[in-house]
């Protein structure tokens, strides 16, 4: 598939690398040539150009593209670029947006008529992932497949777990209640065979179903606990979407250092406590009684601050910590710091966009950046090896 991506920011660059590995013909364009530097090592083309310029789009070969993706930081540019690309002959277009109203089902046909087939709001996708993580609090990751019939989840196995130190060949795992599909041990990813075993501290990826979740939790030595009181660091779009879309039984407070931002957020979230203070200060967290909350969510624009404050929250006994980390290189560091869940909006967005490129035999694909892997849901063709005993 020929794909033209407009916007060489974090989402665009990550998407280009991901799709190039799938042998798609990728061109990444951006109006700023500096954003295109240091990309020569990757198997895709780059082009300096304005995505709202008909001339520049034609120079990038937009007329021969099968998919046009506009993921610049500016919604108006993305929407306009998609409309132009559609009129220049691109059959499918996708725009990154920051207006939730555009995502409403009633508006889908309206934008399709304008030439914008798909809309993506990375901050909304990230907030949905965080809410799901709060609901499934003992898991690090939760990914449903086959309309929820199958679930891929990951947990960090504790020293009291019944599944520890048992070789897969032993027969202990000879049942159909779950399958261990991968083990993360330090920097190593293990696809287990009969001689492998699970050790304390391993991050284990299970495939199971909803009926067996409690059994998996017990086998992993995990505790099921209720989350009610939540502290959020950073009054970002992600934080606001979390509060706007999460169930009402949570008690939430947001800590934001910018006074003007606090005023704006309080207007949008009148029933949420907004605290104007610097949450990177441990004294501030103590004053806000961090030891009493059930979950701490750090979603500031600074990945380092998010990781460090989650460490502080862990030190004060907070059971569930969630950090937004935009630098994939920090994933291993975050896991070594025992942070419960890592959210990365560019990998979430890229996985969503990736699904648009799938052929009819591939139903779903998800990215697992912590183990540099993908999970693919396929339709097994008649006569294929996987259908035979």
Explained architecture:
The protein has helices at 10-21, 54-59, 75-87, 108-114, 122-135, 213-219, 237-245, 259-268, 282-287, 303-315, 331-336, 345-356; strands at residues 2-6, 25-30, 45-48, 67-70, 92-96, 118-120, 141-145, 150-156, 179-185, 188-190, 203-208, 229-233, 251-256, 273-276, 295-298, 320-324, 341-343, 362-368, 373-378. It has 389 residues and is an alpha/beta fold. The chain folds into 3 domains: 2-120, 3-Layer(aba) Sandwich (Rossmann fold), CATH 3.40.50; 126-131 and 225-348, Rossmann fold; 138-219, 2-Layer Sandwich (Alpha-Beta Plaits), CATH 3.30.70. α1 crosses α12 (345-356) and α5 packs across α7. It starts with a strand and ends in an 11-residue tail after the last strand.
Question: Which key features would you list for this structure?
Answer:
Rossmann fold, alpha/beta, globular, 3 domains, Alpha-Beta Plaits, six-stranded parallel β-sheet, 389 residues
């Amino acid at each position: 598939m020929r794909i033209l991506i407009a916007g060489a920011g974090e989402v665009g660059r990550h998407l280009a690398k991901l799709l190039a590995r799938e042998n798609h013909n990728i061109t990444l364009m951006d109006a700023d040539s500096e954003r295109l530097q240091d990309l020569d090592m990757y198997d895709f083309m780059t082009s300096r150009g304005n995505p709202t310029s008909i001339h520049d789009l034609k120079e990038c070969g937009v007329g021969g593209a099968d998919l046009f993706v506009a993921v610049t930081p500016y919604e108006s540019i993305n929407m306009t670029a998609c409309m132009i690309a559609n009129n220049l002959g691109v059959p499918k277009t996708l725009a990154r947006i920051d207006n939730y109203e555009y995502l409403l089902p009633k508006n889908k046909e309206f934008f399709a008529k304008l030439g914008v087939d798909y809309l993506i709001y990375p901050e909304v996708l990230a907030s949905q992932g965080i809410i799901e993580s709060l609901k499934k609090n003992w898991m690090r990751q939760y990914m449903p497949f086959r309309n929820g019939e199958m679930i891929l989840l990951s947990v960090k196995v504790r020293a009291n777990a019944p599944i520890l130190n048992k070789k897969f060949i032993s027969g202990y795992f000879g049942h159909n209640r779950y399958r261990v599909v991968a083990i993360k041990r330090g920097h190593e990813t293990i696809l287990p065979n009969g001689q492998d075993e699970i050790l304390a501290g391993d991050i284990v990826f299970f495939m199971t179903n909803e009926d067996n979740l409690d059994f998996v939790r017990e086998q992993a030595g995990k505790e099921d606990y209720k989350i009610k009181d939540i502290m959020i660091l950073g009054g970002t779009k992600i934080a606001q979407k979390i509060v706007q879309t999460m169930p009402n039984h949570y008690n939430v407070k947001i800590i934001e250092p910018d006074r003007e931002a606090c005023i704006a957020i309080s207007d949008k979230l009148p029933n949420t406590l907004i605290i104007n203070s610097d949450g990177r200060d441990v004294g501030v967290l103590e004053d806000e009684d961090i030891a009493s909350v059930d979950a701490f969510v750090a979603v500031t624009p600074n990945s380092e601050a998010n990781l460090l404050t989650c460490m502080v929250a862990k030190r004060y006994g907070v059971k569930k910590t969630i950090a937004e980390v935009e630098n994939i290189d920090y994933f291993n560091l975050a896991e070594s710091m025992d942070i419960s869940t890592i959210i990365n909006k560019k990998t979430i967005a890229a996985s969503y966009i990736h699904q648009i490129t799938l052929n009819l035999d591939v139903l779903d694909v998800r990215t697992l950046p912590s183990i540099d892997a993908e999970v693919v849901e396929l339709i097994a063709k008649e006569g294929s090896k996987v259908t035979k005993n």
